[in-house]
């Protein structure tokens, strides 16, 4: 392949590596290897996998967590200064996002300089950070269902100097809080009316599982008059991953208006707004406001929030309770391709007449006749009494149809002044030319490693560890090692701003369309290289550092793989350590059953 057909720069775009939250740490080198960068030191991920002899691993880049924390604090300081905002930032880390001890330790140690505290939602989470609670002091926000056992524990920490903000949601909790007023602060969680359009926006509105309505609060105050003085904080949470900045702004406006009104009604000590989580992580950084690609940055978030909060006469402090933005980038799932198979049928014998494909004058005609032909084919495939010969013919027909359409479309685009985007007008054609031709069997478990793919159809960026200086060969689906049909990953959002040669938009071997310049397109498979025999070809799933550790499932007894921890030494050098490395990964039979 000539150089003009591909470039590392194009790979950066196609694989979504120009990303404001992780480009500091993850990049491609000139020879096409995916590398982790820390303080100017680089390590090829392939070298790390080979060094420890692993077929799969979680690679944790701990400096990415610290960097995200620094970005948050810096963005707040800059935007609050620009807006002449006087309220302070109170950052806390919500443990439900990732309570892995390595992660919590990183956040705690680095967070000391910013007084970064914790948010806990259960007694168990509280117990998991006991060692930090007795070490120093800070801020502790307590959500979730509260018990007197939990409050006794909180009282102890409060008396040692922790600032405990207990957010209540019911009469029972108000009564409970009333008994501990000399040590803890009280907040109230309200149901926001703003709709944020997040996948989790069912956590808002009156039917939300969480919080109280304003009416309910006003009635409760009659029974618990101490609340008028005791309430310091109002808490609203708009659901995780709010991808539209306008929704963030609306939520901030709603919160600050409620704060102002309540102050007028005599809640004179209200001086904190906890906006919950919601700051969206750019799984894809195209800023289009889709579920995977928020239309704003951390800086834009604070701008929107503070411009709403400024309307308040006494600027409230802001509790920053976002965790997804802090931990997402740090965890990379790396998995080896163990085998490759055909995705669909192959050509074997003669087929039905497919001349209509060659004869089609333009895409419009091709689309129309394809729609008709596919119906005929589907009817034939639906019959039960086919013998082996008829099956051969049907399979060959389907295979040849796909191959002919793919090559015809490629020729139509390359030989004519047609724009690549022309294909977007024809859904059947588009689906065929972006369909996978290969199935890669990969050493991972979607249920254990990226469970949110099944739970909320979360998008994760997929990148090969090698050959990023070569044009991808095929579109492939990634089957995992479980025996579950849902254990397959094949959706891919592709975006490149431009190509120099239309040939660059097609894969090298199966001639699939993998990009349309200037347009975000959804492919049915992932652009990858066909590993040669004996080649160590690995794939990385990026941004798996939020929620995935905590939600991991043990389907087919596939448990956790080894972990490669990347950190910096006190001299600022790259430091690499392998945890559970003797297990070698999922394909080692010795450990496959140990969970
Ligand atoms: C889940 C949750 C968070 C964390 O939200 P992210 O946007 O996922 O970081 C914060 N606060 C509360 C109350 C939550 O339930």
UniProtKB/TrEMBL annotation:
Cofactor(s) this protein requires: Mg(2+); pyridoxal 5'-phosphate
GO molecular function: arginine decarboxylase activity
EC number(s) per entry: 4.1.1.19
GO biological process: L-arginine catabolic process; putrescine biosynthetic process from arginine; spermidine biosynthetic process
Pfam annotation, one family: Orn_Arg_deC_N
Residues annotated as domain Orn/DAP/Arg decarboxylase 2 N-terminal: 73-327
Domain of life the protein comes from: Archaea
Active site, per annotation: 483 (proton donor)
Family of this protein: Belongs to the Orn/Lys/Arg decarboxylase class-II family. SpeA subfamily.
Protein name: arginine decarboxylase
């Amino acid at each position: 392949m000539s150089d003009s057909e591909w470039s590392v720069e194009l790979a950066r775009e196609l694989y979504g590596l120009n990303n404001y939250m992780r480009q500091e740490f993850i990049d491609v080198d000139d020879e096409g290897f995916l590398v982790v960068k820390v303080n100017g030191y680089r390590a090829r991920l392939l070298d790390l996998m080979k060094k420890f002899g692993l077929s799969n691993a979680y690679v944790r880049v701990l400096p990415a967590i610290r960097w995200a924390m620094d970005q948050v604090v810096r963005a707040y300081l800059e935007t609050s200064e620009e807006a002449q905002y006087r309220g302070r930032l109170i950052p806390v880390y919500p443990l439900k996002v990732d309570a892995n001890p390595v992660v919590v330790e990183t956040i705690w140690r680095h967070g000391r300089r910013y007084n970064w505290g914790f948010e806990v939602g259960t007694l168990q989470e509280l117990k998991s950070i006991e060692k930090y609670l007795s070490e120093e002091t800070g801020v502790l926000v307590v959500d979730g269902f509260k018990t007197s056992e939990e409050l006794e524990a909180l009282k102890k920490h409060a008396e040692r100097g922790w600032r405990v903000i207990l957010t209540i949601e019911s009469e029972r909790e108000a009564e409970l809080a009333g008994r501990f007023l000399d040590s803890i602060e009280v907040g109230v969680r309200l149901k926001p009316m703003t709709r944020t359009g997040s996948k989790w926006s069912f956590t808002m509105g009156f039917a939300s599982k969480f919080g109280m309505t304003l009416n309910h609060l006003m009635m409760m105050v009659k029974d618990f008059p101490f609340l008028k003085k005791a309430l310091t904080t109002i808490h609203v949470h708009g659901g995780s991953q709010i991808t539209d900045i306008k929704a963030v702004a609306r939520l901030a406006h709603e919160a600050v208006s409620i704060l102002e009104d309540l102050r007028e009604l005599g809640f004179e000590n209200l001086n904190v707004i906890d906006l919950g989580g919601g700051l969206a992580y750019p799984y894809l950084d195209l800023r289009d406001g889709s579920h995977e690609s928020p239309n704003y940055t951390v800086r834009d978030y604070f701008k929107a929030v503070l411009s709403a909060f400024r309307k308040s006469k006494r600027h409230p402090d802001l509790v920053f309770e976002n965790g997804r933005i802090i931990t997402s980038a740090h965890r990379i799932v790396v998995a080896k391709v163990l085998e490759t198979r055909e995705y669909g049928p192959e050509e074997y014998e003669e087929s039905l007449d497919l001349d209509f494909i060659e004869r089609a004058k333009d895409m419009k005609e091709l689309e129309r006749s394809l729609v008709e032909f596919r119906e005929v084919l589907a009817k034939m495939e639906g019959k039960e009494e086919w013998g082996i010969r008829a099956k051969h013919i049907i399979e060959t027909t389907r295979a040849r149809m796909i191959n002919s359409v793919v090559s015809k479309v490629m020729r139509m685009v390359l030989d004519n002044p047609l724009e690549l985007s022309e294909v977007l007008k024809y859904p059947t054609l588009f689906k065929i030319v972006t369909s996978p031709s290969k199935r890669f069997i990969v050493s991972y478990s979607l249920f254990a490693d990226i469970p949110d793919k099944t739970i909320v159809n979360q998008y994760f960026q997929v990148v090969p560890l090698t050959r990023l200086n070569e044009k991808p060969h095929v579109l492939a689906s990634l089957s995992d090692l479980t025996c579950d049909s849902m254990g397959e990953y094949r959706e891919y959002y592709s975006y490149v701003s431009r190509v120099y040669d239309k040939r660059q938009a097609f894969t090298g071997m199966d001639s699939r369309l993998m990009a349309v310049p200037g347009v975000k397109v959804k492919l049915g498979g992932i652009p990858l290289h066909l590993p040669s025999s004996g080649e160590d070809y690995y794939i990385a799933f990026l941004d798996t550092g939020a929620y995935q550790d905590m939600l991991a499932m043990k389907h087919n007894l596939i448990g956790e793989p080894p972990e490669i921890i990347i950190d910096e030494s006190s001299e600022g050098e790259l430091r690499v350590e392998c945890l559970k490395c003797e297990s070698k990964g999922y394909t080692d039979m010795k450990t496959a059953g140990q969970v």
